[in-house]
Design goal:
Radius of gyration: 25 Å
Helix content: 25-40%
Distance between the termini: 37 Å
Number of strands: 30
Bound molecules: alpha-methylisocitric acid, iron/sulfur cluster
Length: 756
């Protein structure tokens, strides 16, 4: 079945005209990113050469995707808008709430009963508002989107940072918080800071042990976790066209790890093949007809320095397999240097577990290449020296790899297959012994490896690599093993080498699936009742946040000055907390428990300025709230990196934090804070971070004249009676200042709908 074919055809019919118009106005050839952006301008927005990195522009995305852990908040917000049905095609995917422990069937059954209330809520609210619903077990949102909904030249948003995965099919797909999704579903425009453009020219061809994953591992090493902020990364060149569509998806997926707004590739034959293999020949035919509009102009790719803000060139023929980590996805080490680096840093080299799959790397091609290594275990008299697990990305892939005998091969070497879900990637891994917090090493083909992410153990060192390399390393059980040069000892005592991986881009016999797990919404959902029990621990209806009091904000207590990395995993941890994603008050009990307190280097231990005592962050903040005192959170660089979860903004808002002042923000988190009516500020002088003291009481001045581009003043009242004033920048535009004044974007929408 092809979803929304009419919509795609309409887009394609309009695209040439819109692209030509943009080319004419801008007076230059266009990148693919520009073609898609300019052809998705909100109705009434005139084409102009929007200043990249400066201008806020309104867009009209084609669709919205949400996963279960973020959809709850997005839909609870949507439910308060008064709309009868979503304005653009939207889907919900149940993938984050399934714990991986025993194996796919048992784990899925357990999740179904434990999360019944939440799944029922999502299913019925989807049914009511015309949203497609993908049941638990159907697969991970980004794989299901790639297989069913993504289309070249389209624009979508999704409440998950890895929505960007759909760039593999030539889309502009962007991760957002639930409030943004709510706006678009309510029929409003979607605002984005016009992104800068980074071009990545891929020359040569992938070969041997190197895979698409290594391209992005290398790019992450070059650009670091914040190098892509407010930029779209566009890949092109012979290396791009010679790569599979799902390989492109992997590269775009991990663009989230460099903070990029999104990443994309021009339409080519690999995308046509993938569309046809996944039952969408009509889309491929339609795309073939407007091919030139679905890729960057030839002049751009011939002279990239002229048209992109930054250009990187990577020769795939020379690219080495990489391992990135531990604790950050941008610490890139080529496999040939691993031995040296591990010794230098004292990383444990015994690999306990190798995990493949996740939304990043679970294509048919990935699994077939890994299986080619798994087969060699038996053939060459080897054995698996680490535990080994597989999480397929979708039921379609799982069914097909079972049909083709791959799951049997994995089973024969002792691997475990988990449900088609996020599982270990998001801490939904009931790993035996993790509670002992032993220092240990794992390797996986996921995208993120922040502390505690996979198993909750802060002492697990996770390294990210291609599924092929993870498989080889799990066979060797040793981080020092380089399959390109090293041998392994087999059961006869001989030295054997692993042959490089090989596989099929797409299944030779085509994909098959018995039940993909899709539930279409009712044609008229007006009679569907959504039931949220008042005493539910999992779901809680939302209340409107209060509006700005109309004065400067005085007397804020410093809740925490976070030191170093503070990702959304640190602000609102996942794993066991995922079960409270629909209950704002309950999930608020994890507020900032992972962040390191600058003053004592400890997590979840801050000074309560009212009592002078130290206690957990959430309890301390609740004490301020109870006393009617606002507070402020101070942070370091790239604060809020990682996930799109708006809980990281709603929880502090709910508990009475008024301001977040940091050296720099990650894009999605900054927007989420603005949407929820918080003040998201950055130090005008980063060195002022050092001036914040533990007992500070802080005032924010200049709010009566709050205006775009105008600094605000932050007065630090120190305990010794002295005070100093520092300057804070912000990136609020007029509309966002309006949200702040009204107490959040939702209050604005609600008012608008009520008055219509
Ligand atoms: C993640 O990979 O961190 C998540 C879990 O998919 C998040 C979304 C969430 O927190 O629910 C993301 O990437 O946005
Ligand atoms: Fe799920 Fe992990 Fe992908 Fe996030 S990164 S969507 S948790 S598989």
């Amino acid at each position: 079945m092809v979803f929304d074919l009419d919509l795609i055809r309409k887009r394609y019919a309009e695209m040439p005209g819109k692209v030509e118009a943009a080319r004419k106005t801008l007076g230059r050839p266009l990148t693919l990113a520009e073609k898609i952006l300019y052809s998705h301008l909100w109705e009434g927005v005139n084409i102009e050469d929007f200043a990249r990195g400066k201008a806020y522009v309104d867009f009209a995305p084609d669709r919205v995707a949400m996963q279960d852990a973020t959809a709850q908040m997005a839909l609870l917000q949507f439910d308060t808008t008064g709309r009868k049905r979503v304005a653009v095609p939207s889907t919900v995917h149940c993938d984050h709430l399934i714990v991986a422990k025993t194996g796919s069937k048992e784990d899925l059954n357990k999740a179904l009963s434990e999360n019944e209330e939440v799944f029922n809520f999502l299913s019925s609210i989807s049914n009511k508002y015309g949203i497609g619903f993908w049941k638990p077990g159907a697969g991970i949102i980004h794989q299901v989107v790639l297989e069913n909904y993504a289309f070249p030249g389209g624009m979508m948003i999704g409440t998950d940072s890895h929505t960007v995965n759909a760039g593999g099919l030539g889309m502009i797909a962007i991760g957002v918080g639930g409030a943004d999704a709510c706006d678009v579903m309510a029929g409003l425009s979607w605002e984005l800071l016009m992104p800068k453009l980074i071009g990545v020219k891929l020359t040569g061809k992938l070969n041997g042990w190197t895979s698409a994953k290594d391209v992005i591992l290398k790019v992450a090493g070059i650009l670091t976790v914040k190098g892509g902020t407010n930029a779209i990364v566009e890949y092109f060149g012979e290396g791009a066209t010679s790569m599979s569509c799902t390989g492109k998806g992997t590269i775009c997926n991990m663009g989230a790890e460099i903070g990029a707004t999104t990443s994309t590739f021009g339409y080519d034959d690999s995308m046509g093949r993938y569309l046809r293999a996944t039952g969408r020949a009509e889309v491929a035919d339609a795309a073939d007809q407007i091919r030139e509009y679905l890729t960057g102009d030839a002049e751009v790719y011939a002279n990239p320095d002229k048209y992109f803000d930054q250009v990187i060139e990577i020769n795939l023929s020379e690219l080495e397999p990489h391992l990135n980590g531990p604790f950050t996805p941008d610490l890139a080490t080529p496999i040939s240097k691993m031995k040296e680096e591990a010794a230098k840093n004292g990383w444990p080299t015994k690999i306990e577990v190798g995990l493949i799959g996740s939304c990043t790397n679970s294509s048919y091609e990935d699994i077939s290449r890994s299986v080619s290594l798994a087969r060699q275990v038996k053939e060459k008299g080897l054995k698996l020296n680490s535990e080994f697990t597989i999480t397929p990305g979708s039921e379609q892939v799982r069914y097909t790899i079972e049909r083709d005998g791959f799951l049997d091969v994995f089973g024969q070497i002792g691997a475990k297959v988990f449900a088609n879900a996020c599982g270990p990637c998001i801490g939904m891994w009931d790993r035996m012994g993790a509670e002992k917090q032993e220092r240990n090493t794992i390797v996986h083909s996921f995208n993120r490896n922040f502390a505690k992410r996979a198993d909750g153990n802060p002492n697990t060192l996770a390294f990210v690599a291609s599924p092929e390399l993870v498989t080889a390393l799990a066979i060797a059980g040793d981080l020092n093993f380089n399959p390109i040069t090293d041998t392994l000892t087999n059961d006869k005592g001989e030295q054997v080498k692993l042959d490089p991986p090989s596989g099929d881009e797409l299944p030779q016999k085509g994909f098959s699936v018995e039940d993909a797990g899709y539930q279409a919404p009712a044609a008229d959902g007006s009679s569907v009742v959504i039931d949220v029990k008042a005493d539910s621990k999992r779901l809680q209806l939302l209340y409107p946040f209060s509006a700005w009091e109309g004065t400067d904000i005085k007397g804020l207590k410093l809740l925490i000055k976070a030191k170093g990395k503070c990702t959304t995993d640190h602000i609102s941890m996942a794993g066991p907390w995922l079960k409270f994603r629909g209950h704002l008050d309950n999930i608020s009990n994890n507020l900032l428990i992972g962040a390191t307190n600058f003053f004592n280097e400890k997590t979840d231990l801050v000074k309560n300025q009212l009592t002078g005592e130290y206690g957990p962050v959430p309890a301390t903040q609740r004490a301020y709230k109870a006393a009617g005192i606002g507070s402020i959170v101070v942070g370091d660089e790239n604060y809020g990196e990682g996930s799109s979860r708006e809980h990281a903004a709603m929880q502090p808002r709910h508990l009475g934090v008024r301001v977040v002042l940091v050296k720099s923000f990650a894009r999605i988190h900054e927007t989420n804070l603005k949407k929820q009516g918080m003040l998201a500020l950055t130090f005008a002088d980063k060195a002022d971070y050092d001036k914040i003291q533990e007992d500070d009481t802080i005032d924010i001045e200049g709010l009566l004249a709050f205006a775009p581009g105008k600094t605000l003043q932050v007065v630090l009242n120190h305990k010794d009676g002295s005070s100093e004033t520092i300057q804070a920048n912000h990136s609020y535009n007029a509309q966002q200042i309006h949200w702040f004044k009204e107490g959040g974007a939702l209050n604005v929408i609600r008012k608008e709908f009520a008055s219509n």
